[in-house]
Amino acid sequence: MVQQEILLIVEDVTLFKNARFWQQLRLCIYDLREKAFKKDVDLKLGFCQLKDQSDSDGVEKAEQIIFADLNNFSLAKDFNNCLNKISDQSLIQYLKNYDKRNDAPATGAKIIYFQKECCSPSIVVEDKTVKELCKEKKCQILVINNNEISGFEPKFRSFIFKNPKPLKSLISKKQIIFFICLLAGAGIISSIPFIFRKVTTVKYVYQKVYTGDGDRLILRQEPSREADEIMRLIEGETVILLEEGEEWNKVNYHGLSGYCSRQYLKEALEEEYVITDSEAKYYYGKACIRFLEPEIVDGYQWIREAGDEGLLRAQWAMVGFYDKGAAHLSKNVIQAAYWCDMVVDNKNCLEETQLVDWRNLQVTYENTGNSELSKKYKNKIAERERDIKIIRQQSAKFLSEYYFDSNYEKADSYYRQALELGLKGDSNYMMSLANYYGISTADYLYWMKKASSLKNNDATLALAEYYSDNGEYEKAIDYYKSLYNAGYETGDMAYEIGLIYWNEWKNYSTAYSWFYRTYNARKYNDQYYDACFALGMCYENGYGTYKDIYYAMQFYGYAYSSNSKAAEAYDRLREKYGEYTWY
Known about the structure:
The protein has three domains: 2-161, Rossmann fold (3-Layer(aba) Sandwich), CATH 3.40.50; 205-328, Roll (SH3 type barrels); 443-577, Alpha Horseshoe (Serine Threonine Protein Phosphatase 5, Tetratricopeptide repeat), CATH 1.25.40.10. The chain is an alpha/beta fold. The strands form four sheets. Strands 1, 2, 3, 4, 5 and 8 form a six-stranded mixed β-sheet that branches. Strands 14-13-12-9-15 form a five-stranded antiparallel β-sheet. A two-stranded antiparallel ribbon has the order 6-7. The chain has helices spanning 19-38, 70-74, 88-96, 130-136, 153-161, 173-185, 278-291, 299-308, 312-324, 333-345, 350-367, 371-403, 408-420, 427-437, 442-453, 457-469, 473-485, 490-503, 508-521, 526-541, 549-558, 564-577, and strands spanning 2-10, 41-50, 67-69, 83-86, 110-114, 124-125, 128-129, 140-144, 205-209, 217-220, 229-233, 238-243, 248-253, 256-261, 265-268.
């Protein structure tokens, strides 16, 4: 088995708080693990934090650099458990003693140096820089400056598996061959130092997704159209080919292994194996959340990055994560509101840009007579437009509710915005907004009318009472009648309508008919007894109906115990006409 020793050194301690750095590093290490396993390479990894030169323990720790098995290291829950805290002297001692170790790979170590400053490593020993010392010990070093951190993955991978430079031989090729033959004849060929063996070059085949019509390619768990999906790869994304089949290729997409239909994959370059598209980051993040531990790949970070770049769906996903809490993201309403603000402010989201391209394609296909693709893009456009609209509606609604207790003006503004975007709305919430303003304001009427239009009976009643109190009786009658027709408290609504016809318009016949409806409702509340008294007056005086003393006494009698005026009227008529029995 080929051996290789790798030393990761982080000089810039601020990187320990850089989520994107850790995300890239996890991907690199996970990828190295897979490559090493496939190519039968025994990789040992030392992970070091370079402390200040004044660290008194530095030299003592020089021999304590721990090289973990890559398989265990890549799956570690916490990198801190694998972390060596060393000083510059520890690194120097490691290099100086490298060729003295019996277990040191003959190929030389490879050092990846994440440096604080944008210049060559400044560690010096005996007038030799680290680079010079590496060269002397047949080791290799890759310096990654702080301005290269954001995209170091391709450089990292290329460096780890590239061929070491050939050693300068002091003897001729013929002498080497003769020497090897002698050893073979003596039966000790297996003891030849590793430097005389051929070093295996790790070469990956990269393939790019190409569907031809902009569709996403499904990465499945098994080579079957019925197999469960892992994720959908957008056109142009690059994968690593693991196994080639007749119909299905086994591929790896940044730690996610699965199967893709072979006909939609074409040759790609290694430098294309990087996720740069915001939509790809979003889908990748969602898949990582489902299939990978966050300690390996933080799917939430990928979605967050897509949201920062302006992808509306990613921003809305972050709202959901923080609103409800997810995995290692604690519930945080303030953060949820922050992402909602980003959605509302994102007037020119990436989805809108994509829609422009889709509309152009749809028109092109329609003009060229390709009705199938034209219809396909029409459906895609409609679906995406609907998604954008819903996300913006719900974000504005969320912000309105968020500000309800602290800033009514903002709560009002955001809810109006949500309604303009087509939100059906919550009539009870609208009433809450109305009641904040008080009944004497235009905003009160605006929200009450909105709530009433959604068949909220309480809002409709409030409007009826408002217009009645303000002398706008026709409007009041309209709202009372709508409630009556809806079956809401029919007896009470009939009484209120009758009262307006009686008191305000002196239309006794119409008032009589509405009071009679209250009587027929038999609710036996104040309105019922008041309506019976009014009906007694109608029959006693001939208001709106024929005059009938006996009917008058009957209705007065219905209200006798609950309405004092009805009791007085009944007693008056009984004294004049005598006791009346209606049964």
